[in-house]
Every structure is written in C-alpha cells, then in structure tokens.
Amino acid sequence: MQHASPSDDSLPAPVRVGLVGAGPWARAMHARMLAAGPETTLTAVWARRPEAAQETAAPYGAKVAASFDELLEQCEAVAFAVPPAVQAELAVRAAKAGRPMLLEKPLGPDLASARRVANAVAEHRVVTQLVLTKRYHPRTRDFLARAAGLTVSGARSCYLHGAFLGGDFATSWRLEHGALLDLGPHLLDLLDVAVGPITSIRSSGDPRRWIELTCEHADGAVSQASLSGSVKLERARTRIELFGPGDELVYDTADMDHDECWPVLRREFAAAVRSGTDHPLNAARGLRLQELLAMAEGVSSR
Q: If pLDDT is split at 50, 70 and 90, which confidence band does 301 have?
C-alpha cells in the first residue's frame, strides 16, 4: 500500500497565515509554530516596528508587510500576538475582511472591547480559535474528561510565576493589568469546565501582586483561584485540585512539555479554517472568559 507523503496532491494546501506582532511571544511561539507546518505556513509578519517584524520573519523566509491592510491581502488567516488593546482594534478589521483568526486571550483589555470583537466575528461569520495553550495538551484533555464524570463539592487552584519581576514577558500591559487579565483566562476557563459554569466571583488582593478569587458554580460548588505573576518560583506553577464525595482529582503542569501543545493547536486551526467550522475554543468562548474577568473586577456584564 502506498502511503501519502507531504507532497501528495491529495493533502490540503497549507493555510497561509499572517502574523500580527513581533514581540517575545510572537517569536517564541507563533512564528515558530506556524512555520513548522505542514498544516500552515507563515506567509507574512506585520508589526509597528518594521525591524522587529523583519527579525521575526527572516528565519522562516516570510515577507514583511508594510501595513496591516497589506498583511490581510497576503494571507488567508491571521494570528495575533499583540497586547489586548491592539488585538481588539485589529481583530474587528480582520473580521470585516473575512479572515479566520487565531486569537490570544484575553480578547481585549475590557469587556466592551471584547464584545466588539465577538460581535464582528459573529456578524461576518469568520472562523476563530483561541490560544489557550494548556487546552491543547493531552493531559489537560484527559483531566477535563475525567472531571466530567465527577461530583465536585469544591476546588483549589493556582497559576503562579515570576515573569512580571523582569525579563521578556514583563511587558507594559502585563505590568499594568497584572495576573488577572493575563493568567486569569487560563485558570477560569479550566474551572468553568472542570467544576461547572461559574455564576459569581468575589476577588481580593492586587492583581499586580497577588489576587485571590472565590468562584461559585451553577451546581453549588465553590472554587478558589490564586493568581500571581510576581512571585519568585523556579518554574511556573499551575495546579487544580477537585474534591467531592469520591476520590480527589489533581491536575498539575509541573512537568508538562508545552511543546506538545503546538502541533495540536496548529492542526486544529488549519482544520477549522479549511472546513469553515468554528473551533470550540472560539471568540464566543473568549467573550465568556472576558465576562468572568469583568465579574472578578466587579464590573457588570450588561
């Protein structure tokens, strides 16, 4: 039996993706992942600093777009690796241009901007997918599948690291908004699925130092979430403990290889684009997470 090779005509052509942004995360993850293929190819990069765009594009032979509009002309789909306020502005334009989007979390810096993105995506019916990194790892998917069969009374969780203390990821928007906006979407997403839909959140502390969230869930369960990007640790710590009348279930990323996430993310994004079918982790999910962030901030979701 003859097996298909990557050059076979029967395989779909790689999705031509344009990357918006040329910061540390764009270089470390987005560009590398999209260029690795075979499901996608990095076609062009646009950033507000042309020299940074050139530095990001050059290793992969990608073009440097002179403007965001030029990037849209050169690609089939757009990936964002920019601060939330910039993404919220440009994602609306990409939706109007009919481009599928790989979006970062949070959708925007606040609920109003996130809602504008989600509304534009719905209006123009474009495919979207969120970079909720851990959701693409087999261990996370196994944890959520096992959690679905549990009765959970309560949960404890944390997402902690020291990246805000200095280095490439101590960026201005992270230092301004803190851990709630940056780390919160990851942990709230997992709790919202593993424990059950979150109905209310009370918060205490300072998101720039340490913030503690108490979440009430639809079935009466209560969960705690500790978030900080300003504590000195050897490595980032993400842990969720589920308790109930049965055995506890623990999710811990201490030895998780995040490089296992990228091929899954890339493959599922390409499949969504080619099929025209939205990924479950889409802009609507991003809006739900932004509503939870607003809840934690004491902001009405109306």
A: low
Residues 20 and 129 in one domain: yes
Question: pTM (2 decimals)?
Answer: 0.92
pLDDT at 168: 79
Residue (of 175, 133, 89) closest to 266 by Cα position: 133
* Average pLDDT score over the chain: 94
CATH of the domain at 160: 3.30.360.10
Residue-number span of the structural domain to which 194 is assigned = 138-255
What average pLDDT score do residues 9-33 get? 91
Output the six-digit token pair for 210. Answer: 């340490």
DSSP letters along the chain, please?
-PPP-TT-TTSPPPEEEEEE--SHHIIIIIIHHHHH-SSEEEEEEE-SSHHHHHHHHGGGT-EE-SSHHHHHHH-SEEEE-S-HHHHHHHHHHHHHTT--EEEPSSSSSSHHHHHHHHHHHHHHT--EEE--GGGGSHHHHHHHHHHTTS--SEEEEEEE--GGGSSTT--HHHHHH-HHHHTHHHHHHHHHHHT--EEEEEEEEETTTEEEEEEEETTS-EEEEEEESSS--SS-EEEEEEESSS--EEEE-TT--GGGHHHHHHHHHHHHHHHT---SSSHHHHHHHHHHHHHHTT----
